[in-house]
Design a protein that fits this description.
By secondary structure, this protein is mainly α. The protein has a single domain, classed as Serine Threonine Protein Phosphatase 5, Tetratricopeptide repeat (Alpha Horseshoe). About 70% of the residues lie in helices and about 5% in strands. The chain has helices at about 20-30, 35-50, 55-65, 70-80, 90-105, 110-120; strands at about 5, 10-15. It has a two-stranded antiparallel sheet with strand order 1-2. Helix 2 packs antiparallel against helix 3. The radius of gyration is 14 Å and the shape is globular. Residues about 1-15 have low confidence and may be disordered.
């Protein structure tokens, strides 16, 4: 995991860099083309390069949600959330994805709870 910069609020952005960034961009292209298997393979490779990077876990969570696996999506978003370390933007996006996953899984009350958590981290 690499440090990409400090924000004015004291948090640090930990975005993928180098090969992991390239693989993440590749995964986004595959996902846009509907090739979810190739997208997942690219993200898995990026996660092996930067295993602790929460943004990669969030990217995989988004992919799993699009694939129709809300349980896996929530698990990955919560993993990213556990590594968010005070990053409000990442925390917000993780909770938003948890809300979407819960909604997709039929847990309306859980989705509302997660949406409230996302609102608290804007």
């Amino acid at each position: 995991m690499t440090r990409n910069g400090d924000r004015a609020d004291g948090t640090t952005v930990m975005l993928p860099r180098g090969a992991a960034a390239h693989l993440t961009a590749e995964a986004e292209r595959y996902q846009a083309a509907g090739d979810y298997i190739a997208a997942a393979a690219s993200l898995e490779r990026a996660m092996r390069i930067e295993p602790g990077n929460p943004w990669l876990s969030l990217a995989m969570a988004r992919l799993r949600l699009v694939e129709g696996a809300p349980g896996q999506a929530e698990m990955l978003a919560r993993r990213a959330l556990s590594r968010a370390a005070g990053d409000r933007i990442l925390t917000n996006r993780c909770w938003e994805l948890v809300a979407q996953a819960r909604q997709a899984g039929g847990d309306k009350a859980g989705a509302l709870e997660a949406a409230r958590m996302a609102d608290q981290h804007q």
